[in-house]
Amino acid sequence: MDRHPQQIKRERQDKKRHEINVAKNSDLKTAIKRVLESSALDKAQVHYTIAVSTIDKMVSKGILKKNTAARRKSQITKHLNTLSA
User: pLDDT confidence of 2, banded at 50, 70, 90?
Assistant: First the structure.
């Protein structure tokens, strides 16, 4: 079977992108988990801003879809609102 140079390059690029996407998704999950696990309002607000910023960056880079991002932001906002009430 022939191996075209474009195919070889595409596989190289796919590996790199996969590693970057896995790392970014891990950062996102950690940011969301920090918000959901925090019980103090002041700490939760700090983690909330970081998490929302991370989510928005991932949408702009095309890693997350817009509706998925909205759902995740809604989830952490609900948690934040329960702490303030």
Answer: confident
Yes or no: say if 72 and 32 are a contact pair by the CB < 8 Å rule: yes
- What domain range is 59 assigned to? 5-84
Question: The pTM is what?
Answer: 0.83
Question: For position 1, what pLDDT does the model report?
Answer: 67
CA–CA gap between residue 1 and residue 19 (Å, rounded): 28
51: left (phi over 0), alpha (psi -120 to 50) or beta: alpha
Report the alpha-carbon distance of residue 80 to residue 42 in Å, rounded.
Answer: 10
The CATH number linked to 57 is: 1.20.58.110
Distance between CA 18 and CA 11 in Å, rounded? 10
Q: Determine the average pLDDT of the residues in 40-47.
A: 93
